[in-house]
Amino acid sequence: MNRPGLADFLRRSRTRLSPADLGLPDGARRRTPGLRREEVAAQAGMSVDYYTRLEQQRGPRPSAQLLGALARALRLSADERDHLFHLAGQQPPARHSVADHVRPGLLLILDRLWDTPAQVISDLGDILVQNAMAKALWGDSAARSAASRNIVLRWFTEPESRALIPQEDHERLGRSHVAHLRAVAAARPEDRRAARLVERLLASSAEFAMLWAEHDVAQRRSDVKRIQHPVVGELELACEVLVNDGGEQRLLVYTAVAGSVSAERLELLRVVGLQDLARTEAGRP
């Protein structure tokens, strides 16, 4: 681990960004350019103390998961992400596998969607990054284990994950998850991550095994989702799916029809939900 190099790279990457680059308000006048340490830490889902120690050459070696979160928070390119891993004494993720590094351009779009829920997921269903509205709608994925950040695995192995979806929509959504995963796994037979996910689901969910045996195939497209939110009530949202060039990442944007009850409740979620989220962030260790 190259502590001086890592500290310098983190500082320089932080100072070249502005709050506007992350869709954040400028706030009070800043004596120095760039983001504050607490802003980077919040974006990466880590404590300010831990991040500060990294910049002061005192922190323990970051995990690969945390380095990936820092790369996204600092809007690093793929080459810069690899450099960050090398400085921390870690092997960068293989680029031929499912991409888990969100491109800065895609993150820029996500940051601009301040009034509507949006998140980037991999084609295997891993939630890679959420905007604040998506966290208020679905819950903060960064607070979950790595396995629970996969929406397919969570759907079939964690019953509580279905609480936000009306019962009558469960079968349709489950079939959609399986059909999409079948298409992706067949398109990349050499990808062990896809194979391991399927193996784990077959071993842990009889429902998944039954649906998998039916051999339905369908890529996930735009859809309408009904969500039973515990704070604002039922929402009916259009889910638009935007796919990146390689097809490995998808930007999901949830919108409501203008003037509808769902639009009013989505606005309420923006106010109430983000306040709750801010309190949660403030209490993060």
What do you see in this structure?
The chain has 285 residues and is α+β, with helices and mostly antiparallel strands. The chain is 47% helix and 12% strand. The protein contains twelve helices and five strands. It has helices at residues 3-15, 37-44, 48-55, 64-73, 78-87, 104-112, 132-138, 151-157, 170-187, 192-204, 206-213, 261-282; strands at residues 118-122, 127-130, 223-229, 233-243, 249-255. It has a five-stranded antiparallel sheet with strand order 2-1-5-4-3, sandwiched between helices. The longest helix has 22 residues, at 261-282.
Which characteristics define this entry?
single chain, 285 residues, alpha+beta, 434 Repressor (Amino-terminal Domain), Beta-Lactamase, 2 domains, five-stranded antiparallel β-sheet, 12 helices, 47% helix, globular, disordered C terminus
Helical residue percent band: 40-55%
Count of helical regions: 12
The general outline is: globular
Give unreliable regions as ranges. 280-285
Q: What kind of sheet is the major sheet?
A: 5 strands, antiparallel
